[in-house]
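Run log, item B.
One chain of 923 residues. Sequence copied directly from the ordering sheet:
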Amino acid sequence: MTAIKTERFDRTNAVLAAVVFMVSFIIYAMTVQRSFSFWDCGEFIACSYILGIPHPPGTPLFVLLGRVISLIPFVEDISYRINYLSVIGSALTAAFSYLLTVRIVGYFFGDARHEKLNRFIAYIGGLAGGFFVAFSNTNWANSVEAEVYGLALWLSVMIVWLTVRYFEQRGTTGGQLTLILIFYLAMVGIGIHMTVFLVVPVCALLVILRRGASVRDWSILCGFVLFELLLIFVLSMTSSTAAQGSKMFYLFTAVGAVVLFVLLYKKINWAVLVAVGSLSTIMVSFSLYMKAIPIAAILIILLAFLSKKYNLNLQWKAALAIILVGFIGMSVHAYIPIRSALNPRIDENNPSRGWDTFVNYLDRKQYGQTSMVDRMFKRRGEFGNQFGRHPHMGFWSYFEEQYSSGRWGFVPFFILGMIGVLVAIRKRLEIGLPFFVLLLVSSVGLILYMNFADGVCYDARTGDAYLEVRNRDYFFTPAFVFFGIAMGLGVAAVIQFLRDKIAAGNPELKKTLVYVSSVLVLLPGISLAKNYHINDRSGNTIPYNYAANLLDTCEPNSILFTSGDNDTFPLWCIQEVYNYRKDVRVVNLSLLNTDWYVEQMKNRYDVPISLSDSQIIWYPYEVQPGFWIGRPLKPFYDRPRKRHTYLQAGPWEGRVWKVQDMMVDEIVIENKWRNPVYFSSPPYAESPLGLRDHATAVGLLYRLDREPSERLIDADRGYDIMMNVYRYDGYANSDVYRDENATGVFLSYGVNAVRIFDEFMSQGKKEKAQKILEKIINVYPEYWQSYLLLGDLLKAEGDSAAPESLLVQLVDTLTSFAASNKENLFYLQDLGLSRVELGQLRQDPAMVDEGIQQLWEAFMMNPNNGYSFRKLISVLGSQRRYSDMQRAASIFGNYKINQNDPAVKQLMGLGLPSGLPAPPQGQ
């Protein structure tokens, strides 16, 4: 072992890295959300502020860092402060991407890497790579809200950068220290997100081979990883079951490992391999990791004995240190049971209940018993959809829009990245080939591993493989980041080629070409311009307003049943962080299927539940030899169904009743009308209590009333809160970017306004009916139906020009929203519908055709969207375009879950949907 190898400090390099950090930081700070966002962000912010326990497998390090930054008063809003974790993390990601690019480009020049012109080329490539990473679409989106990916990607890129440094320092004390630091960061990073560990198996390629390994050795080792990817691909297509595919995968992997051993056993550092392998078991499960590390430690001690006896130099001390620091890093998860034992207000899964509960929490057993490894081998989507363009999950559709406008506009960027990868491999295979493997693992590997559902492979027996409910691009952020670095390598490679080939033998021309071609550093400006509006959250207060409006609909001390992430997490955040309307008890129906949540609702939130803890909490119960389920110790009396049963899902009168169904009925009965009860969506229709018959629409919610309501709407109360209580900041501003999820949230404002309008019209209250439409057009101008109804109302009162005038206003409004939100199918769809209406009014067939074309375009953006499907066939039916209706039904029915849709069945051979005109004879 030699002394620490010092490296000449490059002041220019450090300054440019700081420039990349600062520019990225400033752009992110300009576009960061000033409050909380939809999805998990509200939960993460709330848990950070109160030191709570978020959903499995937890993010303890993120929560702790979030708590620290929330205490620093650099801005007033707490959510705004915590969002800066992502701003800082992603700016560091860009800076370390610059450093990594510069270091890899250095290998392009061999021993001449320190020459001035070569350093300049490396800096240009580094700047391009750093800014490509900074301004790529998905990475930027993760950088402006309280999400885990900003910090996770910083650690990932830093680990790769440190690994390349280690490669250069092998055999020195500094190299060993770097090696130990790498695996500490990898394990502590899991406390932010498992994404951090994704790079470790690839980085291990640079760690486990001894110094002096040949190009053949590196090729064989990297080839083994590629073999594993190919194996998963083949078994996914050929295995009849997930279990069979998993077994065959482990079998072939074992055979491949034996072959690898035979070919490379003299070149591998076995002690380090054992240590890294034991840490890598965390990717399978925490329980396996806890079994692997003591076994690995014993093996390394045995190797240490052999190393001393036979003078093998196996680096056993470094290997033991890797296991030790890895365990220390993983110990950040001790926060979870310790804090859970103190009963924070958000305590998901209550992991302090016991060791098994804690392990199941880390292993994400809440989301199913099937491991992610087993799930790889039962395809939940067609390969063409998973790898290609497909709504919500197709990799290529995300990839091609990261840096440019997509389609053909992406081709030059893709070629540039591939040039960078190929040149890196050619110049230094030991660095370039693992980098290429890293790109494949973070793209192809994740596509196979995550196995996202496309809706085409829906399984009606299990209810699995629905189309993904939201865009899953964030899972592929590592691939987009490393490809950004690859494009930086490509920029440097192109400049080097121009210098060495075109200007060969002419020193002055070489300099001129290098300086002129350095204009390529401006290429990330295309990404900046293309992605700025999409990721500018600076004026977006919509999630905050939506959460406040939901709570303000409730009377004091209400119980509010919510359904999903976006009507729950924002409420948690606004209650816990902003101390807003904490009198309302929020009960999430999905979580109400779990024993720990029912127990917390009863004992911590004082939700009226008569069951004892022994009737709620599940304990292991052996149904038959070897088959265990969770079941309470005691049954309870299910009053609505007049039966004694256990609090677990089970059959009754021909259907399976979920725990949430039984608990909703239980809470309503035990409440005894002491507290107002609200639902964010209509209560389940099969309730023996007839809850849906007692649900009255009030603004955005449904209020449970003692007596069934004939009209099912409280128009006066809804009118009052929509006119005088609700906040609408940002809703009317087309410059505030909103995706389809946000648009779906807004839709409830328009729908409820129309309900109120209909009720007032039935009561003869035309003035109030007109006012509610005028209000919604003013604050929520994108809702098409309000314009049509107001036009008809004003026309009936004698204003014959009103319908056309309002439709023109609607078309102009939707044109503005569609231009600002090009990926949002709802705006294009409603714009097409509005053009059809205006074209019919003006008797302009060309405008009608243009509108129908836009409806088709919107439908094809997501052919599984029932809302856009019904709008399309409705318009096609009104235009008597029956063959087009059947074509739309065929496309919509390609998704298995839609094949029993009545409209699909009728259009595909069982007749036309009721209410549509019959086709003319012979058509």
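Observations after the first pass:
- Residues 915-923 have pLDDT under 50 and may be disordered.
- Residues 11-531 form one domain.
Flagged for discussion on Thursday.
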